[in-house]
Amino acid sequence: MNKAPSRLRPFARAADAARSVLKATDAAPPARSLWADAWRRLRQNRAAMASLVVLAIMVLAAAFGPLLSPYTYYTPEWILLNHAPTLTGFHVLGTDDLGRDLLVRILWGMRVSLMIGFVAAFVSLVIGVLWGATAGYVGGWVDSLMMRIVDILYAVPFIPFVIVLLVLFGRNLILIFVAIGAVSWLDIARIVRGQALALKKREFVAAARAAGVGSFTIIRRHLVPNLIGIVVIYITLTIPSLILFEAFLSFLGLGVQAPMASLGSLVSDGVADLQSYPYMLIIPSVVLATLVYCFNYLGDGLRDALDPQDRR
Predict the structure, then answer these.
(1) Omega into 278 within 30° of 0, i.e. cis?
(2) What confidence tens digit (pLDDT) does each residue in 214-263 have?
(3) Is residue 156 part of a domain?
(4) Alpha-carbon span 206 to 214, nearest angstrom
(5) What is the pTM of this model?
(6) For the chain, which terminus, N or C, has the lower number of CB atoms within 10 Å?
(7) Residue 150: which CATH number?
């Protein structure tokens, strides 16, 4: 093979280097996005994936199960009304003291508890993210004032506060959504504020300021989208605590009104008949515990999967 002339050798070496770079690029594995890498690591977490499957089954059962049953959660069976609760016949999980099918009432209870958990978490998420992002980005006296308000609200006893609201304005689902969500946004506000303080020093925020973009637009388009990972983890870890909070209120008789049922009210009803009919307490308690544990395991798995320090 003829050698290239001496004056062309630098160009030949440059071409060889370019070909080597192209070969290395072709051989390198394709880059993965943050979400694709997080999903890959989440699938490796068996506990989190099992919790996700169980949660999906429970959500589908709560959404469509009552539609497939011939029984309702509010209509007693008059034949069984004067009899003791039963585990036989066509009632898979038995009946309560009014002859109502316990399985249907548990499915409705899951539906109500999940609705309260999701809606209350959404309310707290909207308030907390907007409050924390605004305080962290604006800074100065605005940040100090907004966070002092958060400190004052931390000192308010929330359970008596929610109880007073429910007693004064009535026990309806919408008020329960708003009351629980409006008192549970303080933690996410602090977390988002700390992240906003770090994000506002990044180059893309400085470029947006130099381009004349307004503060509200920067918060909405640049800060909030970069907080999605934290928000997802917060939701999965907050929903079970809100479900337990609603169950506590329903256990005290301050939750949903009869004949509507939630898991907390079903547990409260089961306590009254614990000695004679323990299954009326055990079954809804197991369902409530399973729901809470699955959300906690899923939240832990998402926290590990979305941790940027663990990306490989």
Answers:
(1) no
(2) 777 877 777 777 777 778 878 888 888 888 888 888 877 777 777 788 88
(3) yes
(4) 12
(5) 0.74
(6) N
(7) 1.10.3720.10
